[in-house]
Amino acid sequence: MTVLAQQCGASGRMPTLFWNHGGGPMPLLGDRSQASLTQYLKGVAARLPKPTAILAVSAHWEAEKVMVSTCPAPPMLFDYYGFPPETYQFKYPAPGDPALAQRVLGLLGSAGIAAGADASRGYDHGTFVPLMLAYPEARVPVVQMSVLRSMDPGAHLAIGRALAPLRDEGVLIVGSGMTFHNMGVLMGGMRGGGGRFKPSEAFDSWLTAACTEAVGSKRAELLTGWAKAPGGRESHPREEHFIPLLVAAGAAGEEPGRVDYSDWVMGTKISGFVFGTAP
After folding, report:
1. How far is the C-alpha of 259 from the C-alpha of 225, rounded, in Å?
2. Taking the domains of the chain in order of start, what are their residue ranges?
3. Which residues are within 8 A (CB) of 134 and not within 5 positions of it... i.e. 6 or more apart?
4. pLDDT value for 79
5. Smallest Cα–Cα separation from 260: which of 14, 10, 16?
6. In this structure, are residues 266 and 40 in contact, taking their beta carbons and an 8 Å threshold?
7. Using one digit for the tens of pLDDT, what is the confidence trace for 223-275?
8. What are the residues facing 174 on neighbouring strands?
9. In the chain, which residue ranges form alpha helices assigned H by DSSP?
10. pLDDT of residue 2
11. CATH of segment(s) 3-275
12. pLDDT at position 4 over 60
């Protein structure tokens, strides 16, 4: 049993997680540029306590208010283009969890956060790509949740705080995005040009400190001001891939975070985080 699993077992509380889901289906294709990320995702479940269900906050679902999937058997949503035909045949038959979805809606409503149900939403690639690697048996129920189109950092931290009780119910709250998401730079990395993009390293260093050295209100203050951080806007011209991290951090409350993955991918530095690792 890992130290993390022992700690969670002692406290009865699940950690929260932010993982990088990679570019489209590339982690599932054995792409060399994302090899370390693929290996990380394949091993992440072994380092976590077994969840009763997963609440996946996807960067690829935006809405005016928080939307929650209530479908008992979500279909696949192939929201990428230009990839090999086989990438449009993937299946991830993990069941949905309508009861958990209603619990999520209830917690958000009690916190005064507007939310709605979506009975038809399928698993988008921000959800199914990492889950196919991390939980390939597809036995753990999954509920998918949107981010707000406003991208308001404080609102997403508040969403996380409202959902924190789920951690005591065996639910793994996962923010799925990328800590670097500037497509122009990433495409350059795919073509083998440009070397290492230094602003991504500056932002990664700042973000790592914000997530691991600060807790509670200080961490919230830092993350709310992410756009002013070194390399912030160069790493996220639009922040939809960063925002799911704030939900995971908000749900951690006063508990610490730690780096769970860090590497250079397509010429950019990215990191993943686990929060709430203390007993």
Report:
1. 20
2. 3-275
3. 19, 41, 42, 44, 45
4. 96
5. 16
6. no
7. 999 999 999 999 999 999 999 999 999 999 999 999 999 999 989 999 999 99
8. 17, 56
9. 3-11, 35-43, 98-110, 125-134, 153-163, 183-190, 198-212, 216-224, 232-235, 243-252
10. 31
11. 3.40.830.10
12. no
* Packed helices 216-224 and 153-163: angle between N→C axes, nearest 10 degrees: 150
Residue 200 has pLDDT above 50, yes or no: yes
d(CA 234, CA 130) in angstroms, rounded, equals 25
- pLDDT tens digits for 16-28? 999 999 999 999 9
Q: Are 144 and 121 in contact (CB under 8 A)?
A: yes
pTM above 0.90, yes or no: yes
Contacts of residue 183, defined as CB under 8 A and 6 or more positions apart, other chains included, come to none
Neighbours of 204 (CB within 10 A): 22
Cα separations (Å) of 180 from 40, 157, 204, 245? 17, 19, 8, 12
Q: Residue 7: pLDDT above 80?
A: no
Phi and psi at 109, nearest 5°, equal -60, -40
d(CA 151, CA 169): 28
The tokens for 250 are 């908000």
* CA 211/CA 78 separation, integer angstroms: 31
CA dihedral 247, 203, 181, 56 (to 10 degrees): -20
